[in-house]
Design goal:
By secondary structure, the chain is an alpha+beta fold. The strands form two sheets. Strands 2, 4, 5, 6, 7 and 8 form a six-stranded mixed beta sheet that branches.
Length: 252
């Protein structure tokens, strides 16, 4: 009787162990993973399609907005809103420069922000490959002697072809508009020439506000190491052509 009772106890214990193991096994396999809520994601910007993206990256140029996202970019030769009425940059939306030049532009932006946080540099033209310079020259239907008034011929090579020049203006975010510079970009009338500002200020061709805005632009660009030219208020050179040829790659 004791043996039978002991045997029965062993069977009951074994059954309990098996039941307990089964219970644990069931619990182990009943694992429910509750996914986290999908994170809020900003829509991705449209992919760049301009072939110039690949050209510029092959020359180790940098996107200015990758260094300072507050700098505005609206390249005038990336659509037809220019004096040549043609899209030469294949819709390019980014301004590329050699790193050294790009950092100097960031310095100009910082200087401007210290003066007025609502103001920002707006890049109108940046690095321009030599083959684009040729296309622009060929598309301008003027006698050769008159073309020089509008464009640098490809054989002379522009500082833009080294990425050592920038065409810029100032955008006022508080007014959501460009600051008045007295003329538009690529206006080839004498009123665009800084060398003649005193004359147009005196005869009313330029307002005092427009001249003051130009002076502000020149001030921040000169502080950053750029030099203005006498013929275009928007154009600033980083160095001479000789220095550019010695230090930087010609973008073809």
């Amino acid at each position: 009787m004791r043996v039978y009772t002991l045997y029965l106890s062993v069977l009951l214990m074994a059954a309990c162990v098996r039941k307990d193991q089964q219970a644990h096994t069931l619990v182990h396999h009943r694992v429910y993973v509750i996914p986290d809520p999908a994170p809020d994601r900003k829509p991705e910007p449209p992919a760049d399609t301009s072939y110039l993206e690949y050209v510029f990256k092959g020359y180790d140029l940098v996107d200015i907005q990758a260094l300072d996202s507050t700098i505005e970019v609206k390249l005038q030769y990336a659509d037809t809103a220019n004096f040549l009425k043609a899209n030469f940059y294949d819709g390019l939306r980014h301004a590329y420069f050699p790193c050294e030049v790009a950092w100097r532009l960031c310095n100009a932006q910082s200087c401007l922000k210290l003066i007025n946080p609502s103001l920002s540099l707006l890049i109108l033209d940046a690095t321009r490959p030599l083959h684009i310079q040729q296309l622009m020259w060929d598309s301008l239907k003027l006698p050769p002697n008159r073309k020089f008034n509008y464009l640098s011929p490809p054989y002379e090579i522009s500082l833009h072809n080294y990425g050592c020049a920038a065409d810029v203006t100032i955008f006022d975010s508080s007014q959501n508009m460009l600051m008045n510079m007295g003329s538009g970009f690529d206006c080839f009338e004498p009123v665009s020439q800084p060398a003649l500002e005193w004359k147009f200020l005196k005869n009313g061709g330029l307002s005092p506000q427009a001249v003051q805005n130009r002076r502000l632009l020149r001030y921040i660009m000169k502080r950053a190491g750029f030099s203005p030219i006498a013929s275009e208020w928007w154009h600033f050179s980083y160095c001479s052509k000789e220095t550019a040829a010695a230090k930087f790659k010609l973008i073809k």
